[in-house]
From TrEMBL:
Record GO biological process: protein ubiquitination; ubiquitin-dependent protein catabolic process via the N-end rule pathway
EC numbers: 2.3.2.27
GO cellular component: cytoplasm; ubiquitin ligase complex
Species, as recorded: Ictalurus punctatus
Summary of the function given for this chain in its UniProt record: Ubiquitin ligase protein which is a component of the N-end rule pathway. Recognizes and binds to proteins bearing specific N-terminal residues that are destabilizing according to the N-end rule, leading to their ubiquitination and subsequent degradation.
Lineage of the species this protein comes from: Eukaryota, Metazoa, Chordata, Craniata, Vertebrata
Family named by the database record: Belongs to the E3 ubiquitin-protein ligase UBR1-like family.
GO molecular function, one term: ubiquitin protein ligase activity
Bilayer-crossing regions: none
Keyword Nucleotidyltransferase: no
Gene for this chain: LOC128634128
Name the UniProt record assigns to this protein: E3 ubiquitin-protein ligase
Keywords: Metal-binding, Transferase, Ubl conjugation pathway, Zinc, Zinc-finger
Pathway: Protein modification; protein ubiquitination
Substrates-to-products reaction catalysed: S-ubiquitinyl-[E2 ubiquitin-conjugating enzyme]-L-cysteine + [acceptor protein]-L-lysine = [E2 ubiquitin-conjugating enzyme]-L-cysteine + N(6)-ubiquitinyl-[acceptor protein]-L-lysine
Amino acid sequence: MAQTLQSQSHFINKYIDLLTQDSEDLDASASTSAEHSPSSCDGALVCVGPRRWRARGGERRQMEMCILCHEAQEILPDGTAMVLAAFVQRSTVMSKNRKRPPHNPESYDPLFMHPDLSFGTHTDSCGHIMHSHGWQR
């Protein structure tokens, strides 16, 4: 226990400038976010629907580049839809019985997971973003 305490204090003394800089950044961001907090808005916080709360002022814009048309698009809740291509496949990584055949689709209940975890789903994406209208072509 004493050795752990000594290691922690050594780390703090070695990186004191980084730690104080991070705490100053946190204090600055807390003061700016207090100006835009939901408590300063009229009414209750609404997460969905037309009256949902959005931060005003210093919010960061998220811009993404479409891999098909090479056009930059700002990501907005009511903006043009952007999609990711994904590869979905059956996975037996967590399986306790990998030789078990696939379930009969007529009697299979997708909401019920068998205890031997015979198979699951694996989804992978390359991370390339596309406009939905270009992807549908």
